[in-house]
Structures are given as structure tokens and as C-alpha cells.
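Can't paste images in this forum, so I'm doing it all in text. The chain is below; anyone willing to post the predicted C-alpha cells underneath?
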Amino acid sequence: MSQDRQQLKRQLLERSARRQPRAPGQAPQSGEGARHKESMTRFDTLPQYQQISMIREGAQQLGLDDPFFRLHEGIAGATTRIDGRELINYSSYNYLGLAGDARVTAAAVDAMATYGTTVSASRIVSGERPVHQQLERAIAESYGCDDAVAFVSGHATNVSTLGELMGPRDLILHDEWVHNSAVVGAQLSGAKRISFAHNDTDSLTSLLERHRDQFERVVIVIEGLYSMDGDIPDLAAFVSLKRRYQCWLMVDEAHSFGTLGQNGMGLREHAGVEASDVDIWMGTLSKSLASCGGFITGCQALVDTLRYLSPGFLYSVGLPPQVAAPAIKALELIHQEQHRVSRLHVISQYFLKQARALGLDTGNSIGTAVVPVITGSSMKAAQVSQALFKSGINVQPIVYPAVPERAARLRFFLSCDHQKAQIDYTMKQLQDYVHKS
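Text version of the structure:
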């Protein structure tokens, strides 16, 4: 296998070298001009597509199946069905088991019957429906904030919020592992963007010391629960820094709302920090809230600014009724059925404890909802993922360039519906494949 890898590596490098673009300003050789222009009209000459092709060819030569875009044939929770097989599933954000809950589904059906399948317009013109206001009120009350605004996409929530609030005279400081949506939003804004070392307040302090006085507004962007590592920031320390240097603090709670804290109310409950200590709370509807979309909650001036001016809200159709209503019901059930959060905590801790007992590298995961198993190479992550799939376990490999090569991993998402017997079986397979491959 080692010789196969070396041969494949040489082939990919040679292919990449043949495809190196001409240097800027370098004139094409005689007869090349027309061919070069023609090639620039083809999508298969895009460097991005060539990278995809190289990865596919490499996987095929090593006998690895494509683990992406697998077709799930029903509800994906603690188990799923793929190609007619039922598998233990660790690739779903259905943390509290509410996606597919009969009451959540009924809420979607009722809303669709009342309001139709789409609101057919941007909310500011004629797309406003009662379910929108009910959802935003419920989110704001859950956080203890003035108001909330719901977007049709979680990714667009970060892009549009940072893109609207920040400008060329401002500075965005973000954790190096923050989600792509925050990075794209920062780029859109035109503000200066600098990343700091993951969860490192000393690194952030150094940047603030050097740069704060050069800019008007500064926002610090972190996440509540990092989906690659399953770890969390020291929220109180970040609050202290934002106060000291007069900045905004934005917390992306895509994975932490519904999972952290005794009642699932997120990082602030886990950390014992008041909601008002954070300026911008962001979350998604597609994880614990069993729907799709995103939200921002905070003070009234923040929410009004986004509701009237943020492009991703202003120029986008409102949430479909059958998307807003299940999120309302899911949030109601989180408050009513707190055993779901408790079960998630118990099973996540059990997974983490068993994995560490086997000597598996789980990084800095705190053992809530997300636990990585770091394999140390993309090849090994892909091989173990495929072996587990054949053994009835669905878990995705995370490979370079999504993470550094040495940090390639399997990423396990836990659900409150996972059972200890499923974890035990998974550990047996991991022990066989990770340590012996």
C-alpha cells in the first residue's frame, strides 16, 4: 500500500505540474493563443474542478469509495438507511432527535395547509406571516434578548450580518477555526480581517493591543461549539476582552444551542454568562431545531438594522411556513422535554470516555454532541470510514484541505437517541480499524 501511495503522489504531482497556469503577462507561444482562449471557456479547466478530479482519481486508484452525497432513504438520526441497509449513523446534526418527531412534522403540515408551501415574497413587502413573528419571539425569549430575525439560510445569516454591519474602516477578528460563512461575510464587508489562534485569548489580546486603535468598529467572532473539534471557548474571558477594548462580540451557536447547558440554552447557560454580555448571538435552525435557516438575536437596534437592511434578509423570500413552524415546535419541546438534552450529554460523555480508554485521539472535545477521532492522515481517515461503512457504521472522514493533513479525522455527531450498545459496537470496530490499519 505504501508503494501505491507514493506512485499515486508522483502521478498527481506530475499532473499538477502539467496544468500550471501561465505566469501573468507571459505571452502564449506561437499558435497557443486561440487554444488558450478556448480553454478559458471550459469549466473542466478550472483549477477547482481539476482538484476534484485529482481527488476522485486518487481515491479510485486506491480502491476507496466516494463517501460524499450518499443517499439517505428516510429520517437520519441515531440510525439511517442507505442502499437498503440500516446503519448506525454519526453524520447527522439531529442532536435532540426532533427531526422526524411526529409533533414537529404535524406542525409543518398544519402550517403548510394554512399558508401554502411558500410565502412568495420577501417579508418586508408581502411575505410576512404569523409563524415568522412567533418563531422570532420564541428565539428572543429563549435567549432573554429584545428581538430576533430569522434568515432562510444559516450560511447567509453570517454572510449578511457581517457584510451589513462592518465596513472598510472596521476590523473583524475571528477564531482561526470559525465557520466559512463568517469568513465570507468578513470578506464581503470590506473590513480588515485577522484570525487569531484557536480559543487563544492571549493571541486575541495581542492583536487587540496592536490594532484596536486603528479602526472604528471591531467585532470578535467565535463559535459556541466547534464542529471540527467538539471544543468550546472560555466565554467569560472573551466577554472581558470585548469590554476592555470596546468591541462587539459575536457568538455562532449553530452547534451549541440545544446541546450545551443543563437546559440546552447554549454556551451562555453552560458558562453562566448573561445573554446581554454578548452583542450578537447567531444560531441555525437546522440542528437542534429540526428545520432549516438561521437567526440573529440581540438588542432591538441590531435586529431592526438587519431586518430592514441586511441583503440576505431584505432581498430573500421569507422562510416557508413548513420550515418556520417545525422550528417553533422543536423549541417548545426543548423547553418541555429537557431529558433530551440530558440524554445527549450522557451518551456523548460515554462515547468520549470509551474512545479515550481505547487510546483514540479525540483532540480537545468536551464530549458534547461532537467527538472527533483523529487519524493523522487523510488516507487513513478515508480507509477507516470505508471499513466502518461496510461494518454498518456511517461516519464521514474530514480530510485535507478542510483540516491540516496531520489532523485528518473521523467526525462523530451524537444524538440523544444513540444507545450504549451502538457505542460499544462502534468502539469495537474502531479499535480494529484505527489501530490495525
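The mean pLDDT is 92. Residues 169 and 215 are 6 Å apart (CA to CA).
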